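Schema walk-through. Below, the input block comes first and the output block second. Nothing else is stored per chain. Lengths vary across the set, and this one has 375 residues.
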Amino acid sequence: MIVGVPREIKSDEYRVAMIPVGVEELTRAGHRVLIETGAGVGSGIADDDYRANGAEIVATPAELFQRAELVVKVKEPQPAEFPLLRPGQVLFTYLHFAASEALTRGVLATGVTAAAYETLRGRHGDLPCLTPMSEVAGRMSIQQGAKFLERPQEGRGILLGGVPGVPPAHITILGGGIVGKNAARIAAGFQADISILDISVDRLRYLDDIMPANVNTLYSDRHTIREQLQRADLVIGAVLVEGARAPRLVRREDLKLMKPGAVILDVAIDQGGCVETAKPTTHSHPTYLVDGIVHYCVANMPGAVGRTSTYALCNVTFPYVLQIANRGLAAAAALDPGLANAVNMDAGKVTNRAVAETFGLPFTPYDPAAAASRK
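--- output ---
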C-alpha cells in the first residue's frame, strides 16, 4: 500500500503523523511511504531523517494525495485539502466532525473513507488514540492558565500557588476524564486549590483516592457549577462525549458570576466547546475577552509542543496504521471492532451515529464486509 503523510496546514500546527521508525517499519513490511517535504520540521524531524528510513519525499500535497491510498494526518482536513481527497482513499486522522457542519459536509462530499482517531476504541473500551493528546492538553491547560492569569495577559494577576500569607488560585475543572485528571495533577503540584467535577460518582471516588489533599471532588450539577464559577480564578473545560458535540455547561449569563480577569480554558473546543461563549482560537491569537473574562480556546493545544505530542501520538496510532496498510481498512476493521468504530464516513455515507444526529444526516452503520466487496 502507498501511505502518504502530508504537512499539516492548520494554523500553528507543528505535529506530524509519522516518525522515522514508522517509515522503517512500513517499508520493511513492503509498503511505500510518501512524506511531504517539510512535514516533520515542526517536530524537529528533517526530510533526510525520513529519507534515510526509506521514505520518498514529495514536493507538493497534490502529488501526495493523488498517489496515496492511505493518508495519515494529525488534524482534520482543511478546506484547501478537500479537493485532494477522493473515493476509494482512506483518511486516518483526528476529525471531530460534530464540531463543524462545514467540515462534515465537505469531507462527506469527497467520497473518502474517513477513520477518526478520537472514536477508535481499544480492547478495554478506552480511546487509545485520544488519550495521549488528552494527557498533553490537560497538562498544558495549567501551564497556559497560569500564564493568562498574569495581569499583562489581561488576567487577574494571580499566582497559582500563592505565597505564605496569600491564598493560592482556585481552579475549577469541569470533567474528571483524562484531561481533567492530568490538569488536576499538575495544578496540585503548583499548590493551587482545586475542585474537579464529574457526573460519575465512581470516577469521583477514583480521583479522590489518587489525588493529593488540595484536590477536592464534587458531583457536577447546575448549582455546583455556578457556585464554583463564583470562586474560580481559572476554569478548565474538560468534558467529552464520544463523537458528539460537547455539552454546554457554562452559559453566557454565568460569566457575570465570575471575577473580572478570571480565565476560562476550554479544552473541549475541538468538540464545539463546553462554554457557550467559546469559539476556536489559534496559538498566534489564543485569547479574547467576553464580559471581562479571558477565554483561551485553542483547538489544537498539543500542536504547540510538537515534538512531545508527535512522539506520544505516533506511539499509539502507528500499530493501527500498520494494520490498515497490511490488510486494508475493511479487513482490519472486520478483525478489530474498535477500529471499525473509528470509521465515521464510508464512501459518501455517515457511519457515526452521533455525527449523523448532530447535523440531521442519514446514518448508515459501517459494514466492513460490504466495504471490502467494493474493492
